[in-house]
Amino acid sequence: MDATTILKHSVVVPSGKVSYREAGSGPVALFVHGVLLNGHLWRHQLSHLSDMRRCIAPDLLAHGDTEIAAGQDVSVTANAEMLRQFLDALNIEQVDLVGNDSGGGICQIFAATYPARVRSLTLTNCDAHDNWPPEAFKPFLAMSAGGGLRGTLEAILADKSIYRSPGALGPAYEDPQQVTDELIDTYLGPFVRTGQHTKHLENFLAAFDNKHTLAIEAKLKTLTAPTLIVWGTDDIYFDVKWSQWLAATIPGTKNRVEFEGARIFFPEERWAAFNTELRAHWLRAQ
Length: 286
Fold this sequence. Notes:
Elements: E1 7-13, E2 16-23, E3 28-32, H1 43-48, E4 54-58, H2 76-89, E5 95-101, H3 102-113, E6 118-126, H4 138-145, H5 149-158, H6 181-188, H7 195-206, H8 211-214, H9 217-220, E7 227-232, H10 240-249, E8 253-259, H11 266-269, H12 271-285
Parallel strand pairs: 3-4, 3-5, 5-6, 6-7, 7-8
Antiparallel strand pairs: 1-2, 2-4
Helix pairs in contact: 2-3
C-alpha cells in the first residue's frame, strides 16, 4: 500500500476549518503532529497501517492547511478541544490516539480530559509535565517573540540547508541530509502563505506554557487507557527520563520502548519499526 491511498479532506468545526489526511477503514487511529509540522509527518503510518485502522492525521490549529479566524485561541489546550470538536464532526466516538512532540502533549491533555474517547494511547518523544517548552527550543521561541519568525521562515525556505543545520531543525533528525526540499516546503510553506498564517504560528509559540500539562497531571494519574510509550534516546528536546516519568504517571502504561539513537522525528525516519510497535499495541488493546 503506498502514499497515493492518502486522501485530503477538511471539516468545519467551531475552532475553524480543519484540514486532515486519511487512509484505510475500520477503528479510527488519530495521529497528532507537533510544532512546525503538519499531518504529513504521519504519511508512513497512514500508508502502511491502513489495513487495520482508519488512520486520520489532522493539521493542528495554526498549522498546515487548517484555516482559523484571527482571534482563535491556538494554545495546546485549545488544540485538544479542537480534536474533540473534530471527532464529533466526523461522528467518531473513540480513537487509538498517537502523538509526537507538542502533539504528544496535546494528546495527554485530550486523553486526560476525555478518557472515554481514547481506546488506546501512544506517546513518542513529547512535552510532558514541566518540560514545556524544552530548554533546547527556547531560543526559537525567543526569536519568534522578538519578531523574527517570518524572516527566519523565509530564509529557511530560500535556503533549505538552513533547516538541516545544527542551529535549526538538524538535531531533530538522525540524518538531516535525507530531509528533502519538498518535505521542508510542505512543512514550512503554509506558515508564510499570508501574514495572518505567520501570526497564528507566533501565537501558538507564545502560548507554550507548562501550566497546560501541569493542570491535567492529576487526571493523567487516573488514565487507564492501554498506553504505549516509544522514545528515541538521542533527543536534545526530550530526554529519556520523560518517557520514564510518563510510564510511572499513567497507570494504563503497558509497554515502554526505547529506540536507541533515534531522535524526535523518528516516526518519519524509523517508521517501519514504529509501525511494528503500533500494530502490536493495538492488537493487545483490542
